[in-house]
Amino acid sequence: MAMRLIHRKRWALPKQDSSIAPPHVWSNADQDPVPPEKWTWTGWTFTQYWLSDLVTVSTWSAASSAYASGLSATDTVLLTLVAALCNAIPTVLNGAVGADLHIPFPVAIRASYGSYFGYFCVASRAALALFWFGIQSSYGGQCVTPMITAIWPSYANLPNHLPASAAITTQGMVSYVIYHVIQTPFLFIPTHKLQYMFIFKSTLVPPMALAMVIWISVKAGGGSAIFHEPPTVHGTERVWLWLTNMTSITGGFSTLAVNISDFSRFSKRPGSPVWQLPMIPLFKVITGLFGIIAASASKQVYGTILWSPLQIIDEWQGSSGGRAAAFFCASLWLLAQICTNISANSISFANDMTTMCPKWFNIKRGMILCMILGGWALCPWIIIESGKTFLSFMGAYAIFMAPFAGILCCDYWIVKRRKYDVPALYDPRGIYYYKLGTNWRALVCNLLVIVPLLPGLAHSVTPDNVSIDTGLQHLYAINYLYGFCLSFTLYFVLNYFWPDRATLIPAVVPGVVRPLNAVDSDLEAELSDQGKVVHSAEKLKD
């Protein structure tokens, strides 16, 4: 039995001949257009999704960190609003692809990049999701520590038996393991049913965050004084610091502007994703405002600025009532972390794997691989311990995401006028093959946009070793706006003068999901209770 478990062929998914893909192409049901019975996401679902994704420790801390850089509270609120709009507009526009055609991002990107060059975008997004899954899991482990300490105060003094080279303490590792034990069952929730998890989180976490802000503001005697404090930087330094922080906050959610169709493909109506346009700025600004007010109030209450809500919770461990509050609040921040990690990272990676390796991966297997590689193989606690260098590089990954988002948006709305041939997207030799599987227009746009930003990226990662002039530093400070707008414009110009007429079809060719008998692998069938597992999709009604 052990040998059969590790035999490569035993893990292969059976070829699904009735998939929308041509007979010679290996595919699986997770790549196909979503059938109508799974069109469950409404505008309210998207509202709950973003309420779940934005009311988090990272959003709270990002705004307070911008305030700490020397900007005023008003500056920070305004730049957070602009950053949110920079996220919301491309997210809504690119979400229309999934809402209209019910296809995932790895399939949709082929229309603009080509059937093979599109894999570059998919692999780039997958790598980013993998690293951020691990990093967010590490932050989730930090939520577990105050929870356990609230129950057993001695946990705060747990002896460390790990060497310094491990870059994590025994306490940290125990918390990290417990976090994964809690998170793992959530990975198996089907995407079209995630709305129930979002409802649960959006009902509990925002009121808790508001209560924390009110409590610490009252403790400090009010939090309005922060908006009367002037900035500590002035002139052009203030302008570029403003733009740098705005770009940094925008970049944190740059991937979702690209892969939102992984979720919008479950939309009940084409207009459902439009709800994101007001909701993303609203939730991002409110959560950022919480962080700014709490940071200012914490200085008066504790004598030092506390940027993270978890730091505030740590201060409550001195009494039984404080520990009860600490456990409750830390538990809800833990829930917020799990929701964000699943929606922003694990599902994205799983969708990418079903495209790159459809013979071996479906969504469920992709989620498990993401947990193994991102959560453990990459040792994310070492990544965080390595300091700002690696995190600067990961944050700078937005220089790749911006042109992806700009080109996808321009292609669907302007060049193709929302007219895609869906079956052709699943055919490697179809009309979206272009030449050698690559749309040269997208390739040129990526080169012209990304290459000028590489010196700024190198300087950001290793500022002591790489010196660049002020102009390149300023260009890098606006890398997301520059990347999105320039790629959008260049792609439009290239297609205007040198169009690929074969892809300019007169009407949409929708995907036809035929009856599908999707079975698990032979091994999974043998391990099931009944000896086999058969999933039958109902025949679609006209």
TrEMBL record:
Gene3D superfamilies: Hydantoin permease (1.10.4160.10). The keyword tRNA-binding does not apply. One of its GO terms (cellular component) is plasma membrane. It is found in: Membrane. Keywords: Membrane, Transmembrane, Transmembrane helix. Pfam families: Transp_cyt_pur. InterPro entries: Pur-cyt_permease, Uracil/uridine/allantoin_perm. It is a multi-pass membrane protein. It comes from the Eukaryota. The chain crosses the membrane at residues 116-135, 162-182, 203-227, 239-261, 282-302, 322-344, 365-384, 390-415, 436-457, 477-498. One of its GO terms (molecular function) is nucleobase transmembrane transporter activity. Belongs to the purine-cytosine permease (2.A.39) family. This is NCS1 allantoate transporter.
